[in-house]
Design goal:
The complex is a heterodimer. In chain A, helix 3 (about 90-110) runs parallel beside helix 16 (about 400-430) and helix 11 runs parallel beside helix 14. The two termini of chain A are about 25 Å apart. Chain A contains 22 helices and 4 strands. In chain A, about 65% of the residues are buried. Chain A has helices at about 1-20, 30-45, 90-110, 120-135, 150-155, 170-175, 190-205, 210-230, 240-265, 270-275, 285-300, 310-315, 320-345, 345-375, 375-400, 400-430, 445, 450-460, 470-485, 485-510, 530-545, 550-555; strands at about 55-60, 60, 70-75, 80-85. Chain A is globular and about 65 Å long. Helix content of chain B is about 70%, strand content about 0%. The chains are: A mainly alpha, B mainly alpha.
Chain lengths: ~550, ~600
């Protein structure tokens, strides 16, 4: 079974290469779908024949506790081994990654992004020139976008480029202009290839049992994601957002790398499981290691105030990019924080917990308040992620058993609910060509099914009991209350944050679904069968986790933390 | 266990399945059949009183169990809730016969019922919380039902947000109790755990929100924007009553001295809402305020630690308030108005069914024997009378005052609706589904008093002196309204244009009609606060963190790079100068350091 670990990483990677190689073929999209489906299958069967989860330290080496292990020497002098392992904490995240990867690939392949009217001719020319210049100048301008004044979409001002927001049809559109039909615009297979690359690298992050490998995989996620945003994002803001995303996360990763190297030097091994089982690094570097690692992961998670790349990146990214950003990339940060930072330096984590907790609570409140006034739907959803991740970090910081499980659960729930919201927002924006709340309204009259799903996703996101979001957030409050004393105030803040979430999500629903039909909404089509097929696994997962949280929590219980 | 699980699962599954149905005919069958089946299950539960549990979620130090426990009293409340739901569903088939969104409506009502049953049956606080909040969400969906009504979305959001605001405290209280007791199981928490007082006050705040008691009563009157059957559902046996029900479940945990807080809330609400009901300008408004006031009676029962008396009033209130709302829907449809009291008028003969249903419902609410409301109100006040605590004294006298008010607003409504002569008649006949519901609820209203003699409730004996006092209070209320009505009778010469007994409130009448402006003030204050806090947060987050620090650092880096480039762009002379200066600095530093050491 341990070979399956390699398959889970390898299949999406091979798929990415194949799609890239055959990007001009008509079936390129479906290769991507097949690869993603295989990856999902490989991830799904991982629990079969798993070890029973008991931990043993056998002559300094961690032997069991993982479900499966795969070990191959790579560069031993650098402490770098290609060692993969999976357990109850990482497996749900791997499954989530594979599922979202598949859904995104299917979305690219099957969902035709429809507008209600034929696109204006200037769009085709604009996109064609944009692609030409983008690729030509990409190398010279990687840092230049920071000097470009902030795009209008972020300031919430008018959004002139909204009607071009469906991403640039890249190479295929440019090389074969005759084959590109803007009426049935379908994203380029290159996007699928990049998605698969993100999926492969993220899976490797969750699987790696070696700290150096972890770092390499962590960085490897960045490149394809940068390309997705930079190339296929909303033309008004994508370059700025992509550069900000890349630079911000690289800066965090470097701190994280320093922390990892300190830990490796101190422990004398880069075997993650072994260090965790040995109780982490020695006391005198514990706080240092935790601070460095946590800062790096806090950028990715993101933890307030290191979050400001996120709203820009999510807003500018194409729909599938936002989905992967929210569903997978943020999970890298929280997974790293809980498993790696918390596992390597448990003492440091305990010392730094109050700081983390206060920042997380601040993040919950600030994000909630900011969301109350945001005029754009994707940006609102993006900011809500900051709040949700605040819950996860707060629960982790509380440090109790219930807290850690709540953090892991909330993490996963967010990975189902927010991607669903992004899919829906993407569907809405591709139909109406606007994401501004002021220009929307009456969706439940025009497209009842889409509106119903929006309502469902919003209720799930605000933590309605019976749906996935509830358990993580309610037990964050519990974990904080369990600590007693000043933590009670943080519990109150978290509970109030859930109220703010209800307020801003209902505001969103009121503007989008209710009221008279807005001109932008009039005449749009309801959800198509392909869209329903893409969304329904997320809906089902949200319901399932909400009604039956037990099995997942049991998995977390036997995980290695 | 299976039985209780089925009791909750039956309407829940029907609701979820109903959300997927788009066709009207199957939706109708599912909508009505599920509560009918559940009614049977609830009856079986009332006999068997099942209990059972399994672990739903294990958080290591604490578990959430799917623990359901239907004690006889709980089963009675469940029966009342399902009974009202069933009749509401039946009524809605006719009431919403032309509504394009009926299918979703029926499904949501069933979900609502399932949530209420979960609250009633739950023995685990977190499980209770699930039902509690799902109910809030369903109320949001149902109140927003009419797509064409401009105020509906706002009213729905207000209902959800106000109750959710209370839930902030509720969740905190539940978690606090769980953390200090080590379990969420109500049956396992024997003694009040440490910090129970504060936690119970938090939970009380949540119940105040759900039950629309003072000071969170603001969401209920606007919630009338929902269809009338929804109002019946929310007011009669579910949401609004759920707050009182939960308080009775948690009575063993209350520190006795803190019950005074409940008493104060109940007293203020009973009197204040009664005055508002007396002044309200439309039919459903009167009923809404009367609900707030009547739930105050239930809180009064809790305040004197007489949980069963409160539940008895809950059940009898479910019968008469369900009847009143459903009849109000019929009356408004018959009169063809928007429900404002100025325009809505019928003659008793226009629809004898509506007339008698309304009369019996109002009489029960006012507490006339031998109807259900008489017994239940009597037991609540009897318990307060016997309690002998400060809380008992407060709620007793507030209850007597509220009884006068109840009689007054019930009489006013009755006179205004039926004794002002003929209005325009829009519709002649009442559809059979609607009239069946009215008949059934009328029978329930008349018969619910029997629970006093043969019910599961442990209630105090009737006191003759109390009964006399209460009847006197009721008659006093009738007399005041009747006097005003008589004086304003149409006479030749002095014709009173506005013949409305609410005139007895004098100048304060407009204020009470507007609910003492609490809603408007709260809305304005909340909006202003939200705007200020949102602007502050955005300034902090977008301007300070993002623009200044993050992008500022990027700008600073680019600028520094540019400066460095500029520094390297000089001629030979500049390089020479710079190197000379550099050498000098290095030399000076070296000399300084060597001298120092």
């Amino acid at each position: 079974m341990s070979a399956l670990l390699v398959v889970a990483v390898g299949v999406p990677l091979i798929g990415a290469v194949l799609v890239w190689a055959w990007q001009h073929k008509a079936f390129a999209h479906w290769i991507g779908v097949a690869a993603a489906a295989l990856g999902l299958a490989a991830a799904a069967v991982l629990p079969l024949g798993r070890a029973d989860g008991t931990r043993m330290l056998d002559s300094g080496r961690f032997t069991s506790g993982w479900w499966h292990e795969f070990d191959a020497a790579w560069a031993p002098s650098l402490h770098l081994d290609f060692s993969l392992a999976v357990d109850g904490v990482s497996w749900p995240l791997i499954l989530l990654t594979a599922l979202l990867g598949l859904l995104c690939c299917v979305h690219n392949a099957a969902v035709i992004e429809r507008g209600k009217t034929a696109p204006q001719p200037r769009e085709a020319t604009a996109t064609a020139t944009a692609t030409a210049t983008a690729t030509a100048t990409a190398e010279h301008h990687t840092s230049a976008p920071l000097q470009v004044p902030a795009a209008t979409v972020e300031t919430g001002g008018p959004f002139p480029a909204a009607d071009q927001a469906r991403g640039v049809p890249a190479a295929s559109g440019r090389l074969h202009p005759g084959r590109f039909d803007p009426g049935t615009a379908r994203p380029s297979p290159t996007l699928t290839s990049l998605l698969l690359a993100v999926q492969a690298a993220s899976t490797l992050v969750f699987l790696s049992d070696n700290l150096i490998l972890f770092f390499i995989a962590f960085e490897a996620v960045l490149l394809p994601m940068w390309a997705i945003i930079h190339r296929y994002g909303d033309p008004a803001a994508r370059r700025h957002a992509a550069a900000k995303f890349a630079l911000f996360t690289v800066a965090g990763s470097l701190l994280m790398a320093t922390g990892l190297f300190v830990a490796v030097a101190d422990a004398g091994t880069a075997d993650l499981g072994a260090i965790i089982t040995a109780g982490g690094v020695s006391d005198d570097v514990s706080l240092l290691v935790f601070t460095l690692l946590a800062t790096g992961f806090a950028v990715k998670a993101p933890l307030w105030p290191l979050h400001s790349w996120l709203p820009d990146a999510h807003t500018a990214a194409p729909t599938v990019g936002s989905v992967l950003l929210a569903g997978v990339l943020l999970k890298l940060g929280t997974y790293g924080l809980i498993r790696v930072a918390g596992g390597l330096a448990p003492d440091g984590a305990a010392d730094a917990a109050p700081v983390l907790a206060v920042l997380a609570a601040l993040g919950i409140i600030v994000a909630g308040l900011v969301c109350l006034g945001l005029p754009e739907i994707k940006r609102l959803i993006a900011y809500s992620s900051v709040g949700h991740m605040g819950f996860v970090v707060l629960a982790f910081a509380a440090g109790t058993e219930a807290g850690v499980r709540a953090a892991l659960f909330g993490n996963l729930a967010h990975g189902l609910v927010t991607p669903l919201l992004f899919f829906l927002a993407g569907a809405l924006k591709s139909r109406t060509h606007t994401g501004r709340l002021a220009e929307l309204g009456g969706l439940r009259l025009a497209a009842p099914m889409l509106a119903g799903l929006f309502g469902f996703a919003a209720l799930a996101s605000l933590g309605l009991p019976g749906l996935a979001g509830f358990w993580g957030e309610a037990f964050t409050v519990y974990a904080a209350a369990e600590r007693g004393g000043a933590w009670l105030a943080l519990a109150a803040v978290a509970a109030f944050g859930a109220f703010l979430a209800a307020a801003y999500l209902l505001r969103m629903l009121k503007r989008v679904s209710h009221g008279p039909v807005a001109p932008a909404i009039a005449g749009i089509g309801d959800a198509s069968a392909a869209e329903i097929a893409v969304w329904s696994p997320l809906v089902a997962g949200t319901l399932l986790l909400g009604l039956m949280p037990g099995p997942l929590l049991a998995l977390f219980a036997e995980g290695l933390l | 266990m299976t039985l209780t699980l089925l009791l909750v699962a039956c309407p829940a599954l029907a609701g979820l399945a109903g959300l997927l149905i788009r066709d009207r005919r199957p939706a109708r069958y599912v909508a009505v059949a599920a509560p009918a089946l559940t009614l049977g299950l609830a009856a079986a539960c009332a006999v068997a009183n099942p209990k059972g549990d399994f672990v739903l979620a294990d958080f290591g130090t604490i578990r959430v169990a799917a623990a359901l426990d239907l004690s006889p009293t709980a089963a009675t409340v469940a029966l009342a809730a399902v009974f009202v739901t069933f009749l509401v569903q039946l009524y809605s088939v006719a009431y919403l016969r032309d509504d394009p969104r009926y299918a979703a409506f029926g499904a949501q009502v069933n979900l609502f019922c399932a949530a209420m049953l979960l609250v009633v049956a739950a023995d685990d606080l977190v499980l209770l919380l699930i039902g509690w909040e799902v109910m809030g969400a369903c109320s949001y969906l149902l109140i927003a039902h009419y797509a064409k009504l401009p105020e509906a979305p706002g009213a729905a959001a207000k209902a959800f947000l106000v109750t959710r605001f209370g839930d902030v405290a509720f969740v905190l209280g539940v978690m606090w109790i769980g953390a200090s007791a080590g379990t969420f199981r109500l049956s396992e928490i024997q003694d009040p755990p440490a910090g129970a007082g504060a936690a119970m006050l938090l939970i009380l705040f949540g119940c105040i929100g759900k039950s629309a008691q003072f000071p969170l009563q603001i969401w209920l009157p606007p919630a009338m924007a929902g269809p009338t059957p929804v109002s019946a559902l929310i007011h009669a046996a579910t949401m609004v009553a759920a707050g009182a029900y939960v308080l009775t479940r948690l009575l063993p945990l209350w520190p006795t001295e803190l019950l005074l807080v409940v008493a104060l809330v109940a007293a203020v609400t009973m009197i204040g809402a009664g005055l508002c009901a007396l002044a309200a300008r439309d039919l459903k408004g009167v009923l809404a305020w009367s609900t707030v006031s009547q739930v105050g009676f239930m809180f009064a029962g809790v305040a004197v630690a007489a949980g069963d008396a409160a539940l008895f009033h809950l059940v009898s209130h479910a019968a008469f308030k369900g009847l009143l709302f459903l009849t109000a829907g019929v009356v408004i449809a018959l009169a063809g108005t928007d429900g404002s009291l100025r325009a809505t008028r019928l003659r008793p003969g226009d629809s004898p069914l509506a007339f008698w249903a309304m009369t019996i419902g109002l009489a029960s609410m006012a507490g006339l024997p031998p109807l259900g409301g008489f017994y239940s109100k009597e037991t609540v006040l009897g318990a307060a009378y016997e309690a002998g605590t400060p809380a008992g004294v407060i709620v007793f006298w507030a209850g007597v005052g509220a009884s006068i008010l109840t009689a007054a607003y019930a009489a006013r409504l009755w006179l205004l609706l039926f004794w002002r002569g003929r209005g325009a008649i829009e519709r002649a006949a009442v559809p059979w589904a609607e009239s069946f519901s009215l008949w059934a609820l009328t029978a329930a209203t008349v018969g619910v008093g029997m629970l006093y003699y043969a019910g599961p409730f442990a209630v105090p004996e009737l006191h003759w002196d109390l009964m006399a006092l209460l009847l006197l209070a009721t008659l006093g209320g009738f007399a005041v309204v009747g006097d005003s009505w008589w004086r304003d009778r149409p006479r030749s010469g002095t014709r009173v244009t506005d013949r409305d007994p609410a005139r007895i409130l004098g100048r304060s009448r407009p204020a009470f009609a507007e609910g003492l402006y609490a809603e408007r003030l709260a809305a304005k204050a909340t909006r202003a606060m939200a705007r200020a806090a949102g602007a502050g947060a955005r300034a902090l987050d977008e301007r300070l963190v993002d623009r200044t620090v993050v992008e500022g650092s990027a700008r600073a880096t680019v600028a520094a790079g540019r400066e460095t480039v500029a520094g390297h762009r000089g001629g030979l002379v500049r390089y020479l100068r710079l190197s000379a200066a550099g050498t000098l600095v290095v030399a000076a530093v070296a000399i300084g350091v060597s001298l120092w050491s």
